[in-house]
Design goal:
Blueprint: H1 2-7, H2 12-20, H3 32-52, H4 58-67, H5 73-93, H6 96-106, H7 112-136, H8 141-150, H9 158-163, H10 166-183, H11 192-219, H12 225-253, H13 269-275, H14 278-286, E1 300-305, H15 311-321, E2 329-334, H16 343-352, E3 356-357, H17 365-374, E4 382-386, E5 392-394, H18 398-404, H19 413-425, H20 431-434, H21 443-448, E6 452-457, H22 461-478, E7 482-486, E8 504-506, H23 509-528, H24 540-554, E9 558-563, E10 569-572, H25 573-581, H26 594-605
Parallel strand pairs: 1-2, 2-3, 6-7, 7-8
Antiparallel strand pairs: 1-4, 4-5, 6-9, 9-10
Helix pairs in contact: 3-4, 3-7, 3-10, 5-6, 5-7, 5-11, 6-11, 7-8, 7-10, 7-11, 10-12, 11-12, 13-17, 15-23, 18-23, 22-25, 23-24
Length: 648
């Protein structure tokens, strides 16, 4: 055991360097069991082709075809190709240690176990290419020429590699890593056995990747049998350590010998999805719920998210749920990567929820794939609305809930269209569209008494101080009652309560979140009904919502003014400060005409001002269509943005 323990020995400095390449935000959910079978098949075919001179690729072709049908494999396959290129580059550069760190950084978004499997898949790719050259170099001049140019040994024999135990050692360590990925989700991270296993993963991953590079380098030159035997032995020693850690975990978690393996073979999933009906999917979900009888003949919202769903989102949804008069039930389906499953995070979220929760590891793979493909779940939370008859009335009822609250029930297209028709007929860019009693309890009173309400946001405290001073002076001079409400910004950093003066109404984080999410939901809803090109000139709600989301998304200062039941005035921070600083130029409008004067003055000074905006909207299953700039009326250019930390 001393020899195998020494195998994982690395310096403290190197250990820290390895850890620095890793991120805890693993975002790729990949069925690696199927990839492992592909690796094994490549190794087998390489040895078989060398010893028997025949093709045995039928099974391999079937697996490849199945593999390419799943969207989530694309990133993994891209990473495998990149790693394979790095391995090839290392053959000439020869810097194994440096290249190992490059591979680790390339695989930073995968778990330690997944890194080993993907690196081995890249190595298998190189073996597959090399075996084809070896097989045909004596009969095909092109193959022989490439073989010579690459400098491969003329004595290279894959049967020999198999006899040395190299392929077998590699497959054993791959299978052990795969087994760990199934075990991790079933044992608390705080357990002694799991802590011991996780502690050795970085060193194991580094060592295996380094050995892969060494073997690839040897195979590209004159083959050193003794060195290959030594490396095969080192891989076996590492696997012995992993196997011992795995057995301890299985004993502590009382896991049956085969329980840690994935429930379904990956190649069967495509067939399962194509045959699944919505009723079968719902039945599969209900089978995992103990009190599923309570859902019989009920309208159900299937809340689908990963573990990054925000606390604010849950709090707002809980408030709506508790006031829905039992019209609908909610079931949370957490879609997670079980190899990086955070049991504590799941437990914390579960405690906040007032509805039914399904355990992540009990959700079947074909159900997960159905949710992604048919219900268009990507990452942002969605809520699929299913009526008592088992029909999907809306693939994302959250958009309606955030916009209308429980009034949107039963979350159908007709209900949403009726609600918008009612708003549009009333020129609905009004305060009560964006704020309700859940966000500000006194909002109805403010509207009825024609209080001058100023909503504003931004992170520049000096602008806020100057702006609010000017607003207070203008409101006092005009003899109108004033309410200042700080709404922060969308995504970017918001100020804290103690940074603002006492007369400013400050909303808690969940209510600020609700305000911005309602604006985004309004835009998503409008986009869904085609209100982007054909009617943008007359759709006031669409134009103004675009402006505010544009201002808030960049951290820019902004302001909205309202007084009574009439339409609001929206402007950026610079324009808002100019209007209030020049109050003397429009002060003839007082009392109930105060907002009208403000609006007219804005129109005068903004005629020659051109200020376009950038709008960042989360993708809720499907990508929005064409958008029109509310400032210049030109078609807006669309970009994809990938953000792991929206708050930054």
């Amino acid at each position: 055991m001393a020899a195998t323990t020494q195998t994982l020995s690395i310096s403290t400095e190197l250990s820290q360097q390895i850890l620095n390449t890793h991120t805890s935000l693993q975002t790729h959910q990949v069925d690696l069991q199927h990839l492992v079978k592909l690796i094994e098949s490549i190794f087998e075919n390489a040895a078989a082709a060398a010893s028997k001179g025949i093709d045995q690729y039928a099974k391999l072709n079937n697996m490849i075809s199945s593999l390419q049908t799943f969207d989530e494999m694309r990133q993994a396959l891209d990473d495998i190709r990149s790693i394979s290129c790095e391995i090839s580059c290392n053959l000439t550069a020869g810097n194994v240690d440096e290249t190992t760190m490059v591979l680790l950084r390339r695989l930073r978004n995968y778990s330690w176990n997944a890194k080993v499997i993907l690196a081995m898949a890249a190595f298998a790719t190189s073996i597959g290419e090399l075996s084809m050259l070896v097989k045909h170099r004596n009969t095909d001049p092109i193959a022989k020429t490439i073989d010579i140019l690459k400098g491969h040994s003329s004595t290279l024999d894959f049967t020999m590699l198999e006899n040395l135990g190299l392929f077998n050692a590699m497959m054993e360590v791959v299978n052990t890593n795969l087994a760990f990925m199934g075990t991790i989700s079933k044992i608390p991270k705080e357990s002694a056995s799991m802590e011991g296993a996780v502690a050795c993963f970085p060193a194991v991953t580094y060592k295996i990747l380094r050995i892969v590079l060494q073997i690839a380098s040897i195979l590209s030159k004159t083959v050193d049998h003794n060195e290959l035997i030594r490396l095969a032995k080192e891989v076996s020693d590492i696997n012995i350590i992993l196997q011992e850690k795995l057995e301890l975990c299985k004993k502590e978690g009382k896991i049956a010998p085969y329980q840690y393996q994935y429930q379904y073979q990956y190649e069967d999933v495509a067939k399962r999805i194509s045959k699944l009906s919505i009723s079968e999917v719902i039945d599969k979900i209900k089978m995992k719920i103990q009190d599923s009888e309570n859902l019989r003949n009920r309208h159900v919202l299937y809340l689908i998210s990963d573990l990054d769903i925000s606390m604010e989102e849950i709090k707002v949804l809980s408030s709506l749920y508790q006031r829905n008069d039992e019209k609908y039930k909610i079931v949370w389906l957490p879609i997670v990567d079980l190899s990086t499953y955070d049991a504590k995070r799941f437990s914390d979220l579960k405690q906040l929820m007032k509805w039914t929760v399904v355990e992540p590891f009990s959700i079947e793979l074909d159900v997960i794939e159905y949710i992604k493909k048919e219900w268009h779940f990507i990452k942002k939370a969605i809520a699929v609305s299913v009526n008592p008859g088992g029909e999907v009335t809306c693939q994302n009822a959250l958009v309606m809930l955030w916009t209308w609250g429980n009034v949107a029930f039963p979350f159908s297209d007709k209900t949403e269209q009726d609600l918008w028709n009612r708003i549009d007929e009333q020129n609905g860019w009004k305060l009560n569209l964006l704020l309700d009693e859940q966000i500000i309890p006194d909002i109805s009173s403010w509207i009825e008494t024609r209080t001058f309400v100023c909503l504003f946001g931004g992170g520049d405290i000096s602008w806020i101080r100057e702006f609010t001073d000017k607003v207070k002076y203008a409101a006092y001079a005009a003899g109108v009652s004033l309410k200042l409400v700080y709404m922060g910004n969308n995504k970017s950093k918001r100020l804290a309560r103690n940074e603002l003066s006492r007369e400013i109404n400050f909303l808690e984080s969940e209510y600020q979140w609700q305000f911005w999410t309602r604006l985004e939901s309004i835009l998503h809803s409008k986009i869904r009904y085609g209100k982007t090109v054909t009617s943008y000139k007359t759709d006031r709600v669409m134009q103004e919502a675009l402006r505010v989301v544009g201002y808030g998304g960049t951290g820019e200062a902004w302001a909205m003014f309202s007084m009574g039941p009439g339409a609001m005035v929206t402007t950026n921070g610079e324009m808002a400060l100019t209007i209030m600083s020049n109050y003397e130029n429009w002060k003839q409008e007082t009392g109930i005409r105060f907002l009208e004067g403000l609006k007219n003055y804005k129109g005068v000074i903004s005629r020659d001002v051109h200020g376009c905006i950038n709008v960042h909207l989360p993708v809720l299953g499907q990508i929005p269509g064409i958008m029109i700039c509310p400032e210049c009326s030109k078609v807006m250019e669309m970009f994809y943005t990938y953000s792991c930390c929206p708050s930054n």
